[in-house]
Amino acid sequence: MAGHSMREHEVYSKLRAPPSSRMILRLDGRGFHRLTESLDFDRPYDEAFRDLMIRTCLDLMEEFSPSLIYTFSDEINVLLDSVPFAGRVEKLDSVFSGFASSSFTRGALEAGFSPVKPVSFDCRVIPISSDIVPEYFRSRQDESWRNCLNSYAYWTLRREVGARRAAERLRGLKSDSLHDLLFERGVNISRVPAWQRRGVGVYRVPHRVRGYNPIRDEEVSAVRMRVKVDLELPLFTDEFFEGLMR
């Protein structure tokens, strides 16, 4: 090994994201179905779990100042405003997944939950051109809707016939049939809370603040940006992203 630097043996250490692209990081909770079961969260949705995911998003927002964070279920999508770590993919993957894992764990412990196993997120780096950013987030919001419909159908039927038979009866059913199944059991899926159907957005919005100018002895106002947690997120449109992407 004489004459060789150990750095030469690091795999992909020089792999960087394209400098001309926008950057999205997608984080997914590892084994979160077992985690939520062990912590006895409500199914199919639990506000305490939602709030832990939102808290993790707020920590990410404070640390990395992205343009948008979008979360549903155990997934977090981060649209970066600027790319840290010189775009080094290994660094982005490891730091963001580690940060989210420790943030969620800290939030869970402070909220009185004690995970039986270490909590972990995985992370993937998605370089993307600016013009298809809205399309990407629309596709994730579509997945949020499918997740909502399938989860309500499964857990509603599971309470009726048990886990195995519920899975068998739902196999291959299209969305119209799932709608009908739920409606027959008193669940109007289009009226469940918006955050369950469309996910949650965390982003900055302008906010007017009032102050006082002692030199002129007058009230003044200024526009500041503050972080908004949007539980009534609209369907993503191109216009939504025009205000976010600088």
TrEMBL record:
Domain tRNAHis guanylyltransferase catalytic: 5-128
InterPro entries: tRNAHis_GuaTrfase_cat, tRNAHis_GuaTrfase_Thg1, tRNAHis_GuaTrfase_Thg1_sf
GO molecular function, one term: magnesium ion binding
GO biological process terms, semicolon-separated: tRNA modification
Pfam short name (any one): Thg1
Domain of life the protein comes from: Archaea
Official protein name in the record: Conserved protein
Source organism of the structure: Methanothermobacter thermautotrophicus (strain ATCC 29096 / DSM 1053 / JCM 10044 / NBRC 100330 / Delta H)
